[in-house]
# Entry
Amino acid sequence: MHRSQLCIPLLVLAAACGGSDVTGSAPGGGGPSDAEVSALARAASGWTYYKARGDTLLRSQGSGHAEARLRTRYNAKAATQLDANGKVRAGVSFPDSSLIVKELIIGSTLTRYAVMYKLRGSANAATGGWLWAYYAPDGSPQIGIGARGSACVGCHASGIDQTRMNDSHP
# Structure
């Protein structure tokens, strides 16, 4: 088996065991690949949900996401910035390796993941040091990290460290 074929299964295993930091480089250096970020975002365990609610929320009126429902979750690093009510604490800046995943849902079907992954030193980091992406449920990129948040940063320019859950779901 080629070394690169080992990468994704190992990342999935690491994420499932609570290790959700990717510091490896994509080909050519400069940060993780879409496959690595997608694998972390799709990991089945180790998450804290916004407001400690694993159920879905209705899309807010001002949302740029088309799907009617959503569920937002934070990896262990990002969850350190949530308050006792499960909301983002005012004025925080998420530390590197923070991963925020919004599951976007139509009816009862997950249609895609909207991902924010903070890695200030990554070549694909955009506003605030975030990597931004949309991934299909199978993990394939719909808008990859190489787009540097072009579909996201306009709406996310405000909010706490570019996050909008407190604004849209107070």
Remarks:
- Residues 47-168 form one domain.
- The radius of gyration is 15 Å.
